[in-house]
Amino acid sequence: MNLRPRLFDWRYAANLLLLAVLTWAAIHQLTQPLWDEPEIVLEMGGTYEDLRRNSSAPFSPEIRGHIWFGIPMTDARLRFVDPQFGFTTPAARFFTVDFDDNVIYGIRMSPQVEPLLIDDALKVVLDLQDQWREKGWVAKGLRRNPTIADTPEWRAWLRKGILHGQSNWQAGDKYQVMLVLGRFEDYRNPTEERYLITLALAKPWTPFDEIEDMYDEPSHFPAPQPN
pLDDT tens-digit profile of 57-67? Predict the structure, then answer.
């Protein structure tokens, strides 16, 4: 007499548990970006499969046998993987990864989701430069492009909106990065001074040690800084 009610109760409880699990999974999927910022985990020379497996951000389809670029399908930060020279960036909206026959050979990105005010832009730039400096990257091309700093001279230089600031760094013979900061006309905030940061990373492509002596005098705008 009691078997049917007990069986019914067990199935009812199991169904409730299953419903609760499915509900939790759906909520987690919908709200995951709120507590787990999507991330592109990238290693130079790695493959598309490595990128997909290690990253929490969905990525565009693969095209084998061609030089092509892929993009994440959501805003995502970069975690560049290297035992010595690794670094991270803030979330980016513009983010492309260059592939040659499925092998990563370059990155082009803007480590921000919208044009930034000068205080916020300089904070991002200085943090990246600090990471590179601490990890053993070396600033290059300083006679023409001193590292970017938060000084009155730099702010006045950038505010003109005529020329940008550029910072070049190299990690031994493995990587080179170019970081650019310039004023940007943001149609959504036409009365504000907004700035755009761009970052390019690949194997060394500019022979700074060979061309540095080509310039007779260093650039003085903005004022050069100590190495």
Answer: 998 888 776 78
